[in-house]
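Appendix B, example 12.
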Amino acid sequence: YQRRVHGIGAERIQSDLANGVTKKRVGLLVQGRPARENMKIFADGAQVGRTTSGGPSPCLKKNVAIAYLQTAFAKEGTEVEVEVGNKPQKAVVTSMPFFPTRFYRVPK
């Protein structure tokens, strides 16, 4: 069975379906200064991703960020470093959403 995808981005989707993805979107809990958009992330001495956004979380009282990491480093609990102002800040990959939602859902 082969899925057929048509339209803009179809080639990329076909490639991801056939070969798997190379990056995953993850949450980060950052120690020290908050990470912001487009900051480099390192692990084992090599760059493994970039942040898309970040800042302090009033609910968690911690600094959080959203990032794309290489799949090998995207597992929850993985320790990485975010380059904030040319200084490495320790960070840990965590699940999202960062804070549990309490939305009321109407039973079906």
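Residues 10-19 form the longest helix (10 residues). DSSP finds one helix and six strands in the chain.
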